[in-house]
Write a structure and sequence with these properties.
Blueprint: H1 3-8, E1 22-26, E2 29-35, E3 43-57, E4 64-77, E5 80-85, E6 89-92, E7 98-112
Antiparallel strand pairs: 1-2, 2-3, 3-7, 4-5, 4-6, 4-7
InterPro entries: MPI_cupin_dom, RmlC-like_jellyroll, RmlC_Cupin_sf
Protein name: Phosphohexomutase
Domain Mannose-6-phosphate isomerase cupin: 38-111
């Protein structure tokens, strides 16, 4: 980052952001919204807690970036199964429109706005 860009994103004195953390139950899973606009104008960040099965469809955003932070399970995309566990990171690109997670796992997920 250039010096001016660093200055542009620095608040002095520091201003504590007001977060609007909210949770939504989808079947046996919980999706918690951690950060979204206007707090972060570029990315939204979520925590997905799966205890069973979670099927999702991508919205208009170009990709989904996910990191498994606990547990293990299976990611299914286009009838192909992928074993995932703590430490697994993956990207669901634009052409992946729906996917399913099965298992007991937690993920931190982000996507651009």
């Amino acid at each position: 980052m250039h010096l001016q860009q660093s200055i542009d994103v620095t608040d002095v004195p520091f201003k504590e952001p007001v977060l609007n953390i909210k949770s939504e139950k989808i079947g046996s899973a919980t999706i918690t919204t951690l950060v979204e606009p206007p707090i972060s104008p570029y990315f939204s960040v979520y925590k997905w807690d799966v205890a069973g099965e979670l099927s999702l469809t991508r919205d208009q955003r170009p990709y989904v970036l996910a990191s498994v932070i606990a547990g293990a399970g299976t990611l299914t995309v286009d009838k192909q199964n992928y074993a995932i566990k703590k430490g697994t990171n993956f990207i669901l690109p634009h052409d992946v429109t729906d996917w399913k997670l099965v298992g007991k796992l937690s993920l931190v997920v982000s996507n651009p706005e």
